[in-house]
TrEMBL record:
Keywords: Acyltransferase, Transferase. It holds the Pfam family GMPPB_C. The keyword Acyltransferase applies. The keyword Transferase applies. It comes from Fusibacillus kribbianus. Residues 71-185 form the Mannose-1-phosphate guanyltransferase C-terminal domain. GO terms for molecular function: acyltransferase activity; nucleotidyltransferase activity. This is UDP-N-acetylglucosamine pyrophosphorylase.
Length: 222
């Protein structure tokens, strides 16, 4: 389905992962080799702008990282990004410029585009968050089905097999996720869409929408 393609969800000028993502059609296809890509990219980053602060962990010199944050490699932390108190970055994480990884937020196997904010008690695993995407306090991406079967991405009658047990949320550019929301495994949210607080998101949510609940998605009128 064209609306779930990388080219429809993301402006690739806002991430260092652009050349990597361009190899794929759908965003979840990029999850498998992400760690290797980050490792090779980190080695090529300009030393006048980035420093290796741990094994396979590169941080921009302008980034602000709390001493209580825990970061495992491979990981890249972008320019002017803030990693706050007790953030837990578990590896395979490419965090863009001017981003916020907040208090007690956990990241694993993710791409966060520039200006992404996951600022308060968020879990983001096996997911890709587009430019200026924001997750409200306590909202999470669930990345494993309760029956532990492989994740299937669904949009109406369309079913796309991912071949992966772990797939979180694919959030397009400018997506706003309300507080306390759960983005279920394999959910894809189009650009410029807002999700109401305390929502349970499944499947594909079109671009330029307001998601009120599973049965009520309305077109945004700005």
């Amino acid at each position: 389905m064209d609306k779930m393609k990388i080219t429809e969800l993301y402006d690739l000028s806002h991430t260092l992962a652009a050349p990597y993502l361009m190899q794929f059609t759908y965003p979840w296809e990029a999850l498998a080799g992400l760690g290797d890509f980050i490792t090779e990219l980190g080695k090529s980053l300009p030393r006048e702008e980035y420093e290796e602060i741990g094994e396979h962990i590169w941080a921009a010199k302008s980034a602000v990282i709390a001493p209580t944050a825990s970061i495992a490699g491979p990981a890249i932390i972008g320019k002017e990004t803030e990693v706050r108190h007790c953030a837990f970055i578990r590896g395979n994480a490419l965090v863009g410029n001017n981003a916020v990884v907040g208090n007690s937020t956990e990241l694993k196997n993710v791409i966060l585009f520039d200006n992404v904010q996951v600022p308060h008690y968020n879990y983001v695993g096996d997911s890709i968050l587009g430019y200026k995407a924001h997750m409200g306090a306590g909202s999470i991406t669930s990345n494993v089905k309760s029956d532990k079967k492989l994740v299937v991405v669904k949009a109406g009658d369309v079913r796309l097999e991912t071949g992966r047990k772990k797939v979180g949320g694919m959030l397009g550019d400018f997506v706003e996720v309300g507080c306390g929301t759960i983005v279920n495994p394999g959910s894809v949210v189009g650009r410029n869409t807002s999700i109401y607080p305390l929502s349970m998101v499944r499947g594909f949510v079109p671009a330029d929408s307001i998601y009120k609940n599973q049965g009520e998605i309305v077109k945004r009128v700005d």
